[in-house]
Amino acid sequence: MYLHRSLPLAMVLAAAMGSLAMAGPVHNAPSKITYKTAPPPPPAGISYTAVVNIKGNLVRGSGATAAMRAEGTGSTEVDFAGDVTGCAYVATVGETGSDGAEPAAFITVVGRSGVPQGVFVETFSLKGKLKNLPFHIDVGC
Question: Is 21 domain-assigned?
């Protein structure tokens, strides 16, 4: 893809992501959690981490209790010791060890519908196709 020097990167990424969105849903995304009353916020200062390998297994982490393939290729559920519905999630594609680097890719993370201790992670190739990739996730409350 040719990028004009004066075209801001954000515009290029927005256009690329827009074309992915127009392709339609690739899977059944978790539904939005709705509560009759808001859940209590987690204690301030809680932080959980998880490192998940290419097979969707939990390698290590702090407060992480499990990881598993949720809906097939590229979709993983990661569970933690406490309710993470009121927390912030940050994830990045990356190797589980200290050697090598994972090629550029995309990753998304959202709270898991019906599982307050879980998050739903999807990893995509640079071309936008669901792909099993190793990743790191940080949950801050």
Answer: no
d(CA 85, CA 46): 12
Nearest CA-CA partner of 70 in 2, 123, 18, 140 = 123
pTM for the whole thing?
A: 0.70
* Distance between CA atoms of residues 115 and 84, nearest Å: 9
Return the closest-CA partner of residue 102 out of 57, 68, 136, 56: 136
Structural domain includes residue 24: no
Indicate the Cα dihedral angle 13, 89, 56, 67, nearest 10°: -160
The Cα–Cα gap between 109 and 89 comes to 7
Domain tally, the chain: 1
Q: What is the pLDDT of residues 58-92, one digit of tens each?
A: 999 999 999 999 888 999 999 999 999 989 999 99
pLDDT digit string, tens, across residues 24-56: 444 455 555 555 665 566 667 889 999 999 999
Domain region containing 37: 30-140
Residue type, 31: S
How far apart are alpha carbons 12 and 29 in whole angstroms?
25
pLDDT for 71: 83
Query: Looking at the domain assignment, is residue 1 inside a domain?
Result: no
